Amino acid sequence: MNTYETGQFSSDFFQPTPVAFKQADNEMQTLLSSDGWFFRLPEYGHVITNSEMVSRIVQYYEMFAVNVFLLGYNVLKNAKAAVSTSTYDIVLFDACTDRFVIEQFDFCAASRLIWGLIGGAIVYFVFTSLVALALYFELRRKGYDALFTALWHSPMFLVCYFYPPNKRVDVLSIPNKYVGLSLWTRSQIHRISLALYCLICTVLVFNSLFRGTAENSKIEGEGLDTGYKKYYNPYLIPYYLALYIFVKTLSEMLITIIQDKNLRNRPERIGRYYLSIKQYE
């Protein structure tokens, strides 16, 4: 019988205790390798820790706060100010018509960027919320505690921070051969949606930069359109910050999707026993 070392806390000391692990197919398997590596087997649901939750909350809402509200509102305000006869309605709905061909910058590109940032975020939130709702009913149908997993895979995962630790199990981290959910639940819809949103907005930001931003009149008026200042000045910093966050989030979503696929049916390396780290006794 293979065993692995686990720990049980008491009020006075930490005592390692040998515990046997039994797989679903009645075969015994070790979770601690000979060189001290500890693995989480696929059929164990991943428990979302506080640090993981806080990290995701900060990154996620930072992206929408900076990109949608800071850049989106900034572009809307400056696009309206750059065309003296325009209103917010014109910027949003008439900027791409023949009436508003502006020499200084691409009025249409600015409008599309606003729609991509703000309108795309609204579409993303609504769509992924509906997917999370469908996931909730699918989990309930299979008899699982559905609310935490559905919230964790929705834009409202901030609420998950207030869940007690024993409720923070992500059912979707378990291979589907064990939980038996509908196949669409394994398609990473929330991550693919966020990656697609980031990709579209990245293209729109680049397009706006190449065609001239809504701040061009201010840039030219302050003599910031020559030399390196043409590419780096205070008016362009929100665009570059948005690009950084979009590209970073897009990369993380793609890497997570690939990593999840690779780890779905095999043990995940999650730690190492402290004695095996020491090189010298």
TrEMBL record:
The keyword Transmembrane helix applies. Keywords: Membrane, Transmembrane, Transmembrane helix. The keyword Membrane applies. The chain crosses the membrane at residues 113-137, 143-163, 192-210, 237-258. This is 20095_t:CDS:1. It comes from Cetraspora pellucida. The lineage of its organism: Eukaryota, Fungi, Fungi incertae sedis, Mucoromycota, Glomeromycotina.
